[in-house]
Amino acid sequence: MAKIKVKDIQTIAEDAKNGKCLFIKTPAKSSAEFFLYRHIPVVKGKSMVKFTIWMKGKGTLTLCNYGYDGAKKYKMYRRLKGMNAGIKINAPDWKKYTFEYDTAHIDAGVKYIFLAFVVHKNSELYFDNFEGVVNTA
Q1: What is the predicted pLDDT for the residue at 2?
Q2: In angstroms, what CA-CA distances link 107 with 25, 37, 41, 113?
Q3: Per-residue model confidence as pLDDT tens digits over 76-104
Q4: CA 125, 115, 53, 117: dihedral to nearest 10 degrees?
Q5: Pair 87, 61: CB distance under 8 Å
Q6: What does DSSP assign to residue 44?
Q7: DSSP state of 120
Q8: pTM assigned to the model
Q9: Are 7 and 114 in contact (CB under 8 A)?
């Protein structure tokens, strides 16, 4: 795998839906991962995490989550259901994407998750206006 610097793959772009946005361009031999590093409280099997993000560009994206226990110690890493091969993005204009995550799939003892976005090689993607909601039954 090629060694690349963060500055080579991500920038703050002016071509945003609102204000500024994140732009990630990955080379042919590397992918990139970025996080929404906010611990989201969840209850196994009783929480549904729904989030939206505006994206444009072309490439492949996989959504994952990290799970933590009550002391916020690492417990697990999972792709969101249906994300094994990633999703293809081909949007020349801004498009709103909505995702849901059922916490029935988290490990026992997980009390918090945070979301990770894996941008596959040969991608040029813009990200803006993330919103999330947690519903607990």
Answers
A1: 41
A2: 33, 19, 14, 11
A3: 877 766 566 688 999 999 999 988 888 88
A4: 10
A5: yes
A6: T
A7: P
A8: 0.81
A9: no
- The CA-based angle 96-129-55, given to 5 degrees, is 40
Tokens standing for residue 116: 């990770």
Q: Choose among 121, 125, 124: nearest CA to 2.
A: 121
Which one-letter amino acid corresponds to residue 70?
G
Rounded Cα gap, residues 40 and 135, in angstroms: 11
CB 84 within 8 A of CB 40: no
Number of Cβ within a 10 Å radius of residue 45? 11
Retrieve residue 73's tokens.
């110690």
pLDDT digits (tens, 9 = 90+) for 102-137: 888 788 888 988 888 889 999 999 998 888 877 776
Give the lowest-confidence range in 4-13, 17-26, 35-44: 4-13
Q: Cα–chain-centroid distance for residue 24?
A: 13
